[in-house]
Amino acid sequence: MRYEEIRRVITARMRAFSGITQDCIAYPNQMEVFEPPGEGLWCRLNIQHGQAFMAGMADQPYIYWRLGYVERRKNPNTLH
Fold first, then answer.
1. How many CA atoms lie within 13 A of 43 on its CB side?
2. Within the chain, what is the greatest distance between any pair of CA atoms?
3. Contact (CB, 8 A) for 25 and 42
4. Rounded to whole angstroms, how far apart are CA atoms 53 and 61?
5. Residue 28 burial by CB count (10 A; 0-12/13-18/19+): exposed, middle or buried?
6. Can you tell me whether residue 62 is helix, strand or coil?
7. Is the full-model pTM beyond 0.70?
8. Which of 15, 39, 44, 65 could hold 26 in an S-S bridge, CB 3.0 to 4.6 Å?
9. What is the pLDDT of residues 23-48, one digit of tens each?
Protein backbone atom coordinates (compact mmCIF):
# COMPACT_ATOMS: atom_id res chain seq x y z
CA MET A 1 0.00 0.00 0.00
CA ARG A 2 1.11 3.52 -0.67
CA TYR A 3 0.90 6.30 1.91
CA GLU A 4 -2.18 7.81 0.26
CA GLU A 5 -4.00 4.48 0.30
CA ILE A 6 -3.13 3.97 3.97
CA ARG A 7 -4.33 7.50 4.77
CA ARG A 8 -7.65 6.81 3.05
CA VAL A 9 -8.16 3.56 4.97
CA ILE A 10 -7.38 5.20 8.32
CA THR A 11 -9.69 8.14 7.55
CA ALA A 12 -12.49 5.77 6.49
CA ARG A 13 -12.13 3.85 9.77
CA MET A 14 -12.31 7.11 11.70
CA ARG A 15 -15.42 8.18 9.78
CA ALA A 16 -17.04 4.83 10.63
CA PHE A 17 -16.20 5.22 14.34
CA SER A 18 -19.40 5.81 16.30
CA GLY A 19 -17.86 6.56 19.70
CA ILE A 20 -17.92 10.33 19.05
CA THR A 21 -19.94 12.50 16.69
CA GLN A 22 -18.23 13.41 13.43
CA ASP A 23 -18.52 17.15 14.03
CA CYS A 24 -16.26 16.69 17.09
CA ILE A 25 -13.42 15.13 15.08
CA ALA A 26 -10.70 17.31 13.54
CA TYR A 27 -9.48 15.80 10.28
CA PRO A 28 -6.17 17.00 8.79
CA ASN A 29 -6.00 19.19 5.67
CA GLN A 30 -9.64 20.27 5.62
CA MET A 31 -10.83 23.47 3.94
CA GLU A 32 -12.76 24.65 6.99
CA VAL A 33 -11.07 25.45 10.28
CA PHE A 34 -12.01 23.06 13.09
CA GLU A 35 -13.55 24.74 16.11
CA PRO A 36 -13.49 22.45 19.17
CA PRO A 37 -16.75 22.40 21.10
CA GLY A 38 -16.91 24.42 24.30
CA GLU A 39 -17.93 21.37 26.29
CA GLY A 40 -17.63 17.63 25.83
CA LEU A 41 -15.25 15.37 23.99
CA TRP A 42 -13.44 16.09 20.77
CA CYS A 43 -10.46 14.53 19.03
CA ARG A 44 -7.98 15.21 16.25
CA LEU A 45 -6.88 12.59 13.71
CA ASN A 46 -3.11 12.71 13.35
CA ILE A 47 -1.32 10.32 10.98
CA GLN A 48 2.44 10.29 11.30
CA HIS A 49 4.42 8.57 8.59
CA GLY A 50 7.22 6.19 9.44
CA GLN A 51 10.27 4.93 7.66
CA ALA A 52 9.44 2.95 4.53
CA PHE A 53 11.21 -0.38 4.03
CA MET A 54 11.08 -3.16 1.47
CA ALA A 55 9.42 -6.34 2.70
CA GLY A 56 9.74 -8.26 -0.55
CA MET A 57 10.91 -8.12 -4.11
CA ALA A 58 9.41 -9.46 -7.34
CA ASP A 59 6.72 -12.09 -6.76
CA GLN A 60 8.06 -13.62 -3.51
CA PRO A 61 8.91 -12.07 -0.16
CA TYR A 62 12.42 -12.52 1.16
CA ILE A 63 11.59 -12.57 4.87
CA TYR A 64 10.09 -15.72 6.39
CA TRP A 65 8.74 -16.40 9.87
CA ARG A 66 9.97 -19.41 11.78
CA LEU A 67 9.40 -20.20 15.46
CA GLY A 68 8.54 -16.64 16.42
CA TYR A 69 11.49 -14.81 14.91
CA VAL A 70 12.31 -13.39 11.50
CA GLU A 71 14.80 -15.37 9.49
CA ARG A 72 16.35 -14.24 6.23
CA ARG A 73 17.08 -17.00 3.71
CA LYS A 74 18.92 -17.10 0.43
CA ASN A 75 16.66 -19.82 -0.96
CA PRO A 76 13.01 -19.43 0.15
CA ASN A 77 12.16 -23.01 -0.89
CA THR A 78 14.31 -24.67 1.79
CA LEU A 79 13.47 -25.16 5.45
CA HIS A 80 17.04 -24.72 6.73
1. 11
2. 62
3. yes
4. 13
5. exposed
6. coil
7. no
8. 44
9. 999 998 888 899 999 999 999 999 88
